[in-house]
Design brief:
Shape of chain B: elongated
Number of strands of chain B: 9
Structural class of chain B: alpha+beta
CATH superfamily of the largest domain in chain A: Thiamin diphosphate (ThDP)-binding fold, Pyr/PP domains
Largest sheet of chain A: 6 strands, parallel
Number of domains of chain B: 2
CATH topology of the largest domain in chain A: Rossmann fold
Number of helices of chain B: 4
Radius of gyration of chain A: 25 Å
Oligomer: heterodimer
Structural class of chain A: alpha/beta
CATH class of the largest domain in chain B: Alpha Beta
Strand content of chain B: 35-45%
Largest sheet of chain B: 5 strands, antiparallel
Radius of gyration of chain B: 18 Å
Number of domains of chain A: 3
Strand order of the largest sheet of chain A: 3-2-4-5-7-6
CATH topology of the largest domain in chain B: Alpha-Beta Plaits
Order of helices and strands of chain B: EHEEHEEHEEHEE
CATH superfamily of the largest domain in chain B: ACT domain
Number of strands of chain A: 20
């Protein structure tokens, strides 16, 4: 067995290399300095961010796009607290991520030393697991455990806190012996991926008997790499599919069986199909409140099949009639095998299908057409972007109205082309997430769809993008407002607009973009939209920001008002007279 | 037996955890973060120094038992969770109590103590220190009996529990 004497810092970098890490996002500082020195000699590409939150979201974007764990490394104290938001974001959306934080030397822990904070304490409830490593010898095993936990079972973020003395070659406590055969030691961690055949048979029986079934598909499908299996199941059974905000792209929007996105801003057919269903087949979904609306009025007639890797999600919100605990791809493949062997049954679903197509006809996603003199319609911008970019374009969005419009009006036909912050709803997510995705796929087009409120939270990472040559493109839907908040104040607070107006002219986004080394373009009129996008698509040597000046009064429809049931879905005014 | 019925609002979980620093904090913070109520909690190393055992009595009015167990099980340092049926567990609690005891009242107090099965640990001029080990209900009763004499100081450990020997392999469910 090969062994080698080295210090903890070198061991940490080598352990990351051994995990197959190709890129990491970070920013050095006092406590993590010794680990930054061996990076110079490492095969790992390091992207120097401008704010640690950016590093975390970039790692998330990378993970969303590739399925591989994103890696970020920052120093102690304020750097660790700056990356708390991405950790929580990754926890809510089950994103595999490993974050390394520096810590003050072991002897100084607990003394309120300079840049000390209780990082593992702070992040305990927003990581899948975290570690404070106190011995250099434990570094390789801990890194191995961190990647194992982050990527298996229900994926999630893992934080590894590294005190300076165990990585500093000048400190005897950093001495350790590298060996290649490190094994993980996690007696309490055994995620179950296999599924119970009895549950599969019971689920198949319910499906065969159902006259109004809906496949309710969540982000777990993407985490389990189960999009192909899902398509096979849907086509074999002829059951329609709704893809949640976290699952957009998991099933092609262009497919006949696709009903689109359910939830608070889901399209009418997806929301209403779930609501009137007699059987929801939940696959890697967690009955989020944004999907269910008021829970006691959600899908009142539906039986529930819940296939899910995380036992704690089963029964947490809505008790299932059949629970399939395990990997959702394994579950789907088992269902496909069962139906292939024993048939899909002969339930009469004709009435249901005509109901679905009637809703699709009467309640398509739509907005009031633009008339001369109107400001630009944000939905139109998304449509132009959708139609003017390659099929495999990756779209990363921020949080708010622009996110909903992007999710609604894009046509997602491939998995892993949609990246957004669903559970936590983190404004400012899009630019760093887009950068992370572009780093993973430099040859593909990556667009960030952002709002002006979001843009001002993380725009500084465009400097990172320019300097590191990561030419993302940003479609800024600029309505001078915190648009979603404005919409709620208009609809539910009697148009009393409290602290939602940002500014009409400050900042000048074109100048700001240019000052960060990007190409800045400003668009006010509909006829300029497509040409501006075409121009942006031609630019590959630097990032591009297009400041689309869009209508502030535009609202996201449909909408389930907060606290209402999904049956009370509000459609746009011009659809209100349609029979439901 | 309906373990989630109204008769069993409090339920005992015996949780085996890795004996590492911060594990108790993880368990406690999980209960706080998920709004699960703890009635009592006792923790100590087991016969195997790699593991500690936490006996936690949970209040099922705050959350269903199933959720509490599953969320606990998600903690990486939690190795095993045993749910002890109230009727199938031996539960004990230790109470130490210092009670006002003028010489003329001591016989009375000792009588109560003998009946409950406790011990006199020390006797001062006007106080006695007593100990009692027993099921929590018996400890409650004894505490009530002492109250009129004047409790100076009192400390209870919270419950610890093991499955009864006739219950399967003696290791609970």
């Amino acid at each position: 067995m090969a062994t080698e004497e080295m210090d903890g810092g070198r061991a940490l970098i080598r352990a990351l290399e051994n995990e197959g890490v190709e890129v990491m996002f970070g920013l050095p500082g006092g406590a993590i300095l010794p680990v930054y020195d061996p990076i110079i000699d490492s095969s790992i590409r390091h992207i120097l961010v401008r704010h640690e939150q950016g590093a975390g979201h970039m790692a998330e974007g990378y993970a969303h796009a590739t399925g591989r764990p994103g890696v970020a490394m920052v120093t102690s104290g304020p750097a660790a607290t700056n990356i708390v938001t991405p950790l929580c974001d990754a926890y809510m959306d089950s994103v595999p991520m490993v974050v390394i934080t520096g810590q003050v030397p072991t002897g100084a822990i607990g003394t309120d030393a300079f840049q000390e904070c209780d990082t593992t304490g702070i992040t305990q409830s927003i990581t899948k697991h975290n570690f404070l490593v106190t011995e250099a010898q434990d570094i390789p095993r801990t890194i191995k455990e961190a990647f194992h936990i982050a990527t298996t079972g229900r994926p999630g973020p893992v934080l590894v806190d590294i005190p300076k003395d165990i990585v500093d070659p000048g400190n005897p406590r950093s001495a350790m012996t590298w060996t290649d055969d490190v094994t993980i030691d996690l007696p309490g961690y055994n995620p179950q991926t296999e599924v119970d055949p009895e549950a599969i048979r019971a689920a198949a029986e319910l499906i065969r008997a159902s006259e109004r079934p809906v496949l309710y598909v969540g982000g777990g499908i993407l985490k389990a790499r189960a999009a192909d299996a899902l398509r096979e199941l849907a086509e074999l059974t002829g059951i329609s599919v709704v893809t949640t905000l976290m699952a957009r792209g998991a099933f092609p929007d262009s497919h006949d069986l696709c009903l689109g996105m359910p939830g608070m801003h889901g399209n009418f057919t997806a929301v209403t199909a779930m609501q009137e269903s007699d059987l929801l087949i939940a696959l890697g979904a967690r009955f989020d409140d944004r999907v269910t609306g008021r829970l006691d009025g959600f899908a009142p007639d539906a039986k529930i099949i819940h296939a899910e890797i995380d036992p704690a999600e089963i029964g947490k919100v809505r008790p299932p009639d059949v629970a399939i605990q395990g990997d959702v791809r394994v579950a789907i493949e088992a269902l496909v095998a069962e139906f292939t062997a024993n048939g899909t049954g002969d339930a009469d679903r004709d009435a249901w299908r005509s109901k679905l197509s009637g809703w699709q006809e009467r309640f398509p996603l739509a907005y009031e057409p633009w008339v001369p003199g109107d400001p630009l319609k944000p939905q139109y911008v998304i449509e132009c972007l959708r139609d003017g970019t390659p099929d495999d374009t990756i779209v990363a969005s921020g949080v708010g109205q622009h996110q909903m419009w992007a999710s609604q009006y894009w046509k997602f036909d491939h998995p892993y082309t949609w990246i957004n912050s669903g559970g936590l709803g983190t404004m400012g997510f899009s630019i760093p997430a887009a950068i992370g995705a572009k780093v993973a796929f430099p040859d593909r087009m990556v667009w960030a769809v952002d709002g002006d409120g979001c843009f001002q939270m993380t725009a500084q990472e465009l400097v990172t993008a320019t300097v590191e040559n990561i030419p993302i493109k940003v479609a800024l839907l600029n309505n001078s407002y915190l648009g979603m908040v404005r919409q709620w104040q208009e609809m539910f607070y009697e148009e009393r607009y409290s602290e939602v107006f940002l500014s009409k002219d400050v900042p000048d986004y074109k100048m700001w973009a240019e000052s960060m080394g990007c190409v800045g373009i400003r668009v006010d009129d509909p006829e300029e939209v497509a040409p501006a996008i075409a121009r942006a698509n031609e630019i590959n040597d630097r990032p591009v920001v297009i400041d689309f000046r869009v209508a502030a009064a535009e609202k996201v429809y449909p909408m389930v008002p907060s606290g209402a049931t999904n049956s009370e879905l509000l459609v746009p005014p011009f659809q209100q007279d349609q029979p439901r | 037996m309906n373990i989630q019925g109204p008769d069993y609002r409090y339920h005992t979980l015996v949780v085996t955890v890795e004996n590492k620093s911060g594990v108790l904090a993880r368990v406690a913070s999980l209960f706080a973060r998920r709004a699960f109520n703890i009635e009592s909690l006792a923790v100590a190393p087991t016969d195997d120094e790699m593991f500690s055992r936490i006996t936690v009595v949970v209040d099922l009015e705050s959350a269903p038992l199933d959720q509490i167990v599953k969320q606990l099980d998600k903690l990486v340092n939690v190795v095993e969770i045993r749910e002890l049926h109230p009727g199938h567990a031996v539960e004990r609690e230790l109470m130490l109590v210092t009670v006002s005891a003028e010489p003329d009242r001591r016989d009375e107090i000792v009588e109560h103590l003998d009946r409950a099965g406790g011990k006199v640990l020390s006797v001062g001029t006007d106080r006695m220190m007593l100990s009692l080990v027993g099921p929590s209900a018996r400890v409650d009763e004894f505490e009530d009996l002492l109250r009129p004499y004047g409790i100076v100081e009192l400390q209870r450990t919270g419950r610890v529990a093991l499955a009864t020997l006739d219950d399967g392999d003696g290791r609970g469910r």
